[in-house]
Amino acid sequence: MVLINNSHLNLLDDMELSHLVNLIASNSNVDLNQDADEDQNNNSSDEHERPNGRKGPWSPEEDSCLKDFVTRNGVGRWGLIAGELDRTSKSCRLRWCNQLSPDIYHGPFTRKEDEIIISMYEERGSKWSQIAKALERRTDNQVKNRWNSNLSKVHRRSQKKVKSAKGSRANPIRGNSKGSRRPASFKSASTRPAPTLVSISTAGPFADQVSPAASLKISEARQFPGSRYRDPASLYLPPAPAAYPDNSAPFACVEAYLPPAFVTPAAHFASQVHQPANPSPSPAPAFNHLTSLSLFPPGHETDDVNYLNQFPDHPAPLENWTGLMEEIIGVDMEQANGAGRKHTK
DNA sequence: AAATAAAGCAACCGCCCTGGC
DNA sequence: GGCCAGGGCGGTTGCTTTATT
């Protein structure tokens, strides 16, 4: 079906439209009149729009053609290009809006984006389009996939923890079934990434998601030389997130570079929800039970807004980071990096 | 190296709404 | 007011990739 109405003509040059329609008709051997007649007999505008519209992955040629169409004619009137490509107009629109549009960012989701998704999901539920609008250059489909493939599980676990504060202390480091894919933080030694900055709640509903070794040692530390925040009272933290339903969980925040093996996914999630999406310039709220500790590996560069606000000069990092970590955690770092790996062969 | 299963994500489905005719 | 195409949206499917045994 090729729809041409007056409003469209206002936007499209008559000559070009004429040329385009002729091109479509000649290229696809479509009888436009017959096509229109068929549509008149169909009630659904979806599947029956182009009964034989091709399905499946898009080829580079199709992408190129669709891009060219949008370049020439702008977004909309997908029925025109649908005929040429033997796709449904809906499929064309989806391909453009979700994949080909230059306004879409296809890179990995950042921690802040995850925060926003989690926060808004708790607030509004699965309103993916609304959530996507709160993010920059993300589509609802991206957000939805992000949630379904990653965040929902973490969120479910955290909710479970909230409900049963004295639940079992499952440790994902152990108990992997054959073939199960571990989180990226538990990759084999050869591909394991360098330790990453995490904030770990050592109290509150996520506390038991921190491995015992890390939790015990770090929560005992108060003012460690080289702490990112030498004055814990000045540390900005956002209000307790919705993950704490009663808003009452007293939590202490410890920030440190840890080997990934020490941090379970849920703990990492807990760290994410501690980070404010948009740090408020207003005075930091009081946290009576705050404990703070931060360490930096040599050469560390941070984009942490809270940190930069407090230390605009970006103090020199610690030199003996590994040694300090070993001292705090009480575990040999080489061993730590090998944690979670089983040598069965 | 093969088998396995989870993760990731593009694409589709179906329902609904809107605006033009 | 009814019909229709276009478009928005949330749910689901199925294929590919990847980590692990």
TrEMBL record:
Residues 50-100, 101-151 form the Myb-like domain. SUPFAM superfamilies: Homeodomain-like (SSF46689). The keyword Plastid does not apply. GO terms for molecular function: DNA binding. One of its GO terms (cellular component) is nucleus. Residues 31-63, 139-197 are annotated as: Disordered. InterPro entries: Homeodomain-like_sf, Myb_dom, SANT/Myb. Keywords: DNA-binding, Nucleus, Repeat, Transcription, Transcription regulation. Residues 50-104, 106-155 form the HTH myb-type domain. Residues 187-197 have a biased composition (Polar residues). Transmembrane segments: none annotated. Residues 153-166 have a biased composition (Basic residues). The keyword Nucleus applies. It is found in: Nucleus. PANTHER family: OS01G0191900 PROTEIN, OS09G0431300 PROTEIN. This is Uncharacterized protein. It comes from Kalanchoe fedtschenkoi (Lavender scallops). The lineage of its organism: Eukaryota, Viridiplantae, Streptophyta, Embryophyta, Tracheophyta.
